[in-house]
Batch of 2 targets.
Target 1
Amino acid sequence: MVKVVLAQKLLQANEEVAAENRRLLEEKGVVMVNLISGPGAGKTTLLERTLPLLKDKLGVAVIEGDIYTTRDAERIAGTGVEAVQINTRGACHLDAAMVNEALRQLPLNDLDIIFVENVGNLVCPAEFDLGDDYKIVVASVPEGMDKPAKYPLAFQKAFAALITKIDLLPYSDFNLGAYIEQLLTINPNLKIFPLSALKGEGVEEWSQFIGRVAWKRRRNLDVI
Ligand SMILES: Nc1nc2c(ncn2[C@@H]2O[C@H](COP(=O)(O)OP(=O)(O)O)[C@@H](O)[C@H]2O)c(=O)[nH]1
Ligand SMILES: [Mg+2]
């Protein structure tokens, strides 16, 4: 009983800071995109491919969430895009207060879009609102077909699903058509992008989509 009350209080406190983040970002005209996946799905690799396609047209920055290391932020810095690293020191997800700290370190007046790479985990990040505009779930072919059924919350809350590592389809029993059907059963509004960050297939389509969505969102136009 006590545990449940505590969890509710934590989530409520998080909601308040998330609302503050949302207000700040709206005032500054910045769209925040929260990338959620299990470890190794390919979030950082995808960002390394996506950022070069966006950075000349839009002001872009990245907030990297990791339990301990700064490796992903270093990879992002290699693209010339500013990255702020958050180390959660054991926590399995980012929370709104951590993101608030990171936002204070970024030049918000110069930005249009901030990508947040959440801690690799399909469970906790789905429960903690960061004040983001969009949650994007990233699921890769080698993870297998059953993850949406096992971890439905991330897929239910997502605006788009990226099915990554499709270059591995010929070597696996993964059925792309059946997977997409499954995603749409869980969330009929999901925008779905099969892609390979390694080979480049589908990356341009996804990059254009998210760039267009961010641009429209801040002009209060219908995004789709
Ligand atoms: N075959 C293949 N491997 C990929 C692809 N994207 C990422 N990887 C590999 O998957 C591993 C984990 O990628 P990473 O981007 O670090 O995943 P993250 O933990 O979600 O950030 C690395 O060895 C990547 O090279 C892809 O599209 N195809
Ligand atoms: Mg990563």
Note: The pocket of magnesium ion (ligand 2) is lined by residues 43-44, 72, 117 (CB under 6 Å).
Target 2
Amino acid sequence: MSLPLQGQIIFVTGASRGIGRACAIAFSQLGGHCILSGRTQSGLIETDDLIRAQGGQATLLPLDLGQHDQIDNVGPSIAQRFGRLDMWIHAAFHPTPLMPLVQLPDAAWEKNIAVNLTGCWHLIRTLSPLLNQAPQGHAIFLQNMASTEAFWGPIAAIQAALQNLIECWKKEISHLSPLQIHSFKPVPTATRLRSQFFPAEKKEALALPETIAQQIVSLIIPS
Ligand SMILES: NC(=O)c1ccc[n+]([C@@H]2O[C@H](COP(=O)([O-])OP(=O)(O)OC[C@H]3O[C@@H](n4cnc5c(N)ncnc54)[C@H](OP(=O)(O)O)[C@@H]3O)[C@@H](O)[C@H]2O)c1
């Protein structure tokens, strides 16, 4: 019996752990071939091993979203190797430490913008030619855990900027392509990111990354 995503190519950022990894595994179980992206090779290999253990296949693409010239090669490389791209799941996120805005060092602000905002724009630019050609393409952006409370300024700024970027991209492509662009906000989930921001929180009270991945699957394949 053929699986619903058989033959589809799916690019996953943040695939080295957490929600990105869980999505890569869940979409591979549905027959998709995931391109696993992130900086940590050992994490990407572990995700690949988990996918292979379930009979799936994946391709590793180590990538630092702060290296914008590397990102620009991603679309052409996928085109050359696979000739198509059906889905992009954007789960990568660089956590900026929580601190008063007046104490935030230049380097922390600049990295936040470079990885979380400029990196995402470069990905949109390099991936959209392929995604626009997909007969049933999807781009899924995970919203961050932004809050407009004290000390969350850089993260809240990224969330607002990304939401607007995504809305504009949606309108730009609406007459050109069947690509569907989704923005999804996970409930608090037990990942390294969550424990960095909320170290004292009880993990048992949090959702599992696998649960979030199934909710994201449901966006694409309603049950
Ligand atoms: N966990 C939650 O409760 C929660 C709630 C709401 C929203 N979210 C959102 O869900 C998404 C996934 O978060 P998560 O909780 O799964 O976090 P996570 O487990 O810490 O994963 C973050 C991912 O981002 C990648 N990343 C970080 N810096 C990068 C860089 N410079 N270049 C490329 N990749 C980079 C990491 O890979 P490498 O370090 O290997 O590069 C890792 O795979 C994030 O957007 C987060 O804001 C999470």
Note: The helical segments are 18-29, 41-53, 68-72, 74-82, 106-133, 153-173, 192-197, 209-220.
